Amino acid sequence: MAKKASRSWPERDLAFVATALLGGLRLSELLGLDVGSLDGRQGERRLRVVGKGSKVRFVPIEAPLEALVSAYLGSRKARFPAERTSPGSPLFVDRHGERLQRGGAQYLVRSAYRSAGVRASVPNGALVHALRHTMATRLAEDGASASEIQHLLGHESLATSQLYIDSTANEQRAAARANRTYRVLEKITKPSPSPTTRPTRKASPPSP
């Protein structure tokens, strides 16, 4: 049991998943973060992210995420007291203090899903991308523009960001359409079928 406990690192796992979900970063971008990627003074923190084509973008992070990252760094110092971090030191490390690698990150996220009771059918290679997709969808639901989504997630094309807005609008319309009140209104407003006119029967002549 003690050996298993030593491998557990909830502060790091929570900080990693929260950064993926709230920052919308690609897996390669997360793994490439350094301690110096945390930029700005307290209360105005942002992440300096190197994306596709070595393009740099800055993703703002708010106080709750900043607190999680700080708690993780504190736990890291307790785990590796001899470690001397610099701005170029990796932000997320494995249990040996080395930069976290793709396989370890995928295992970490999968374990977080299981701990939360979420049975994800997402392949290992797409686990972090699913978190990125969730962030983009929530931004669209909360009214962010396509250009804002493009900047925060580092999409190369504005059309990619626009897809999230269009998809959200369609889903909202479908949800509104499913309202049972619409079915009641349909019954009320549906025109009644016109009564069928029965053919008039000719009167029989009186019998002699």
Report what the structure shows.
This protein has a single domain (about 5-185), classed as Intergrase catalytic core (hpI Integrase, Chain A), CATH 1.10.443. The N and C termini lie far apart (about 115 Å). The chain is elongated. The protein has helices at about 1-5, 10-25, 25-30, 65-80, 100-115, 125-140, 145-155, 160-175, 180-190, and strands spanning about 40, 45-50, 55-60. β2 (about 45-50) and β3 form a beta hairpin. α6 (about 125-140) crosses α8. The chain has about 210 residues and is mainly alpha-helical.
Which structural class should the secondary elements be placed in?
mainly alpha
What is the CATH-assigned architecture?
A: Orthogonal Bundle
Q: Spatial order of the strands in the main sheet?
A: 1-2-3
Helix content: 40-55%
The CATH class label is Mainly Alpha
Which whole number gives the mean pLDDT? Answer: 79
- Tell me the count of domains: 1
The major beta sheet can be summarized as:
3 strands, antiparallel
Distance between the termini: 113 Å
Counted by DSSP, the helix tally is 9
List unreliable stretches of 5+ residues: 1-5
CATH homology superfamily name:
Intergrase catalytic core
Shape category: elongated
Q: Would you report the number of β strands?
A: 3
Q: What's the order of the H and E elements?
A: HHHEEEHHHHHH
Q: What fraction of residues sit in β-strands?
A: 5-15%
Radius of gyration: 29 Å
CATH topology group: hpI Integrase, Chain A
